[in-house]
## 1
Amino acid sequence: MSIEYDRQEGERNKRQQHCTFCKNHGKNLRKSNHKCQHEECECLLCQLTRVSRLVMRHQQRLWRHLKDASSREDTEDAAAHGPAAASSKQQKCDMCRNHGVMKEKRAHKNACPYQDCLCALCGLTKKRRDVMRHQQRVRRSCGEPVPCRRSPPCPWWRLTWGSPLLWTPGSITTPPSPV
């Protein structure tokens, strides 16, 4: 899902979401009241989009569960510290959030204490990152919109350095990256 900011007079920036399936095929259509013609497409980018959404949906469900559990425990702590500061709009580190720690992502990449964690939540985070990395590689290697699988077979299954993308619905693996 791509996001664009529209600025109108007298209003703050509003986020406009765009359909990722259409973006995979070179179209930039807003999601509101949109019936996507590519939602059943079986090309590689659309398959990766589905996997990424599935993993993210599962991850968000787990984060909500953790948030609810920790909010019940922290209710009395929040009352003791007075009103909390407004929450930051900065992105949070997903790996830290998996473990109940809210660290800002900025300047945190090599300092994350959970970057080598092997727990199930961090495994989901790594899988989602791999899927998104594959998606970017395929998009960049194409250079042009990917035809829908309903048309002739999609030739975009090879990455820029020529090795096939090793992807099955159950697992995602990457070939060694070029140096």
## 2
Amino acid sequence: MTSAISNLNLGMIGNGTVSALIDECAAMVWACFPTFDGDPAFCSLLQPKIADSGKFEVVLEGFSHGTQRYLDNSAVLSTQLVANDGSSIEVRDFAPRYKQFGRVFHPMGFVRSVRPLSGTPKVRIRMRPLSGYAERIPERRSGSNHVRYLLGETVLRVTTDASLPMLLEEVPFLLDREIHFIIGEDE
């Protein structure tokens, strides 16, 4: 994988409050918070000054190629990544939107799940948002199962059932079960 985007074949997810663009390598390369016109925390699409930042990506070791499609009759984006050794994973992304208390609820957030499909895939999770319109790396604080990024007025929270040290230190690990990330506003 390269840091520059070689094409603009991007999948889009959104719910009326936020949206994101995701490339064929399962990198979230554009998303603004807390709304469409907010500060772009994920902005690697524009190649920010701070190298290799502004994205949330799942890196498959030995990456060969990726494909994207939307699940039938849904707004769920499925990105399949295949490694040179034949191992593969699926990354599913969507922005929740549902009825609650008689109203449509569309929170500021995304859901990402990563699951093994074949072989013994080794992955690295890289969460590298930026703040101040791509001018600085935000302060980061972690809890038992979440990481908070202070983006100025907005605090972005990533809650996960994956190993937190693997996320914080970007350590590669064998993906032997499905893992999930809920990205949203810390309230």
## 3
Amino acid sequence: PAAGGLNIQYAPGPDDTLVENPPRFTWLPVVEDEAAYVLRLSTDPDYRAKMTRMFTDIPLNFFTPDAVIEPGTWFWSYAVWDAETGAPATAWSTSSSFELGADLPATPLPARAARYAGADMAHPRLWLGPKELDAFQQHHASGLAKADAVEKRHFDQRQGTIRGPQQGVSDEGDRRDPGRGRARRPYLYQG
């Protein structure tokens, strides 16, 4: 495929030390903005069908499989994907290989459709959705949040992170007369 203007390294490659399973695949994007890709991944350098996995209709020039793969030597290449014909629209890229070791952390990325199906559709789409926000508000209203802060302060004292009285700051963070300040965690503003 004809590459666009970005300089993105092909990965994974034969000299890469992989740290997770499956690895993240990246390649140069094509000039066409709306291009989709197909990635083939195989234990066979000739990509025989029964030893090859195909990932089709990839919307970006990077991809993470949704399942771990077996340790060993793997070969991969990509092409531009034609969704209408259900086949590659270009020749396959030059094949690359990598060695996947055993005992790597399993980090599969669920497919886009699965991630979307599991997303909270409330707006705005934040990590803290309506259910989590309600739980947070109840926790805060119950006084447990203040209790948690007090417990952390006492834990910090036991760990030796409170250095002793510091002037000008109360436990609530407001200014006081010098000499009346209370012990504070050292990371709070003392201005």
